[in-house]
Write a structure and sequence with these properties.
single chain; mainly alpha; 86% helix
Length: 229
């Protein structure tokens, strides 16, 4: 990757973090319309980063990851809009969650396309991840009501993504695989924190910040993985 592309990639990553911080500040002030734009800009940064790396790589893995990043941007905007249009909260929430779920499916397809993971290692990571999620959910008294079953299924999907990514990293040992694994783990942490923040006993500003720091770290790490997978 050339010097100009390296500088651009670093700038996009920093801008993503800056827009994230501005979004959270706007959210805390209940300036929800401004928050939608700022969150969208933060997410646009990791999508643009993926586009940059996809142009350099251009293989099937990068295109699938880019599709997942675009669906992440869509999911972010839909979830942010539920605070602007409170009367449509549930449909927007479900549409955003579906967008993320399809994005995770694309990430999984990319991982499997890069080579089958060691299933014994995958199952070990999956068992540890699900156990940690269950313990945390119980500790934070998470109760999503009628969304409980769907929420549990979604968390299982995210933990499975993290488990597969970790297994691929163990098998391949490449920098890109390691970055993707770190991204997958950050996704699992972020979504567990989000459930506790929205439906449990962790409704604190610090938790909301942790949700988004780990989320944007996940998307950026997955975008960066394109170069070295």
């Amino acid at each position: 990757m050339g010097t100009l592309n390296t500088i651009l990639a670093a700038a996009l990553s920093l801008c993503c973090g800056a827009f994230m911080a501005l979004f959270l500040r706007a959210f805390e002030r209940e300036a929800y319309r401004r928050a939608v734009w700022l969150k969208g800009l933060a997410s646009l940064c990791f999508v643009t980063l993926g586009l940059l790396f996809c142009r350099i790589s251009g293989d099937r893995f990068s295109k699938l990851v880019l599709g997942g990043l675009h669906l992440g941007l869509l999911g972010d905007v839909l979830l942010a809009l539920r605070y602007v249009y409170a009367q449509r909260h549930d449909p927007l929430f479900l549409a955003g969650a579906l967008s993320f779920a399809v994005g995770h499916a694309l990430y999984l397809t990319a991982l499997f396309g890069s080579g089958a993971p060691a299933w014994g290692v995958t199952l070990a990571f999956l068992a540890m991840g699900l156990a940690a999620s269950a313990v945390y959910s119980k500790k934070r008294r998470v109760d999503a009501g009628r969304f409980q079953a769907a929420g549990m299924g979604y968390i299982a999907l995210v933990v499975f993504l993290a488990a597969v990514a970790c297994a691929v990293a163990v098998r391949r040992g490449s920098v890109g695989a390691l970055l993707f694994a770190l991204g997958g783990v950050n996704f699992a942490v972020s979504d567990n924190l989000l459930c506790a923040y929205c439906y449990g006993s962790a409704r604190r500003t610090s938790v909301n910040w942790a949700v988004h720091v780990t989320y944007y770290a996940a998307q950026l790490l997955i975008a960066w993985s394109i170069l070295w997978i």
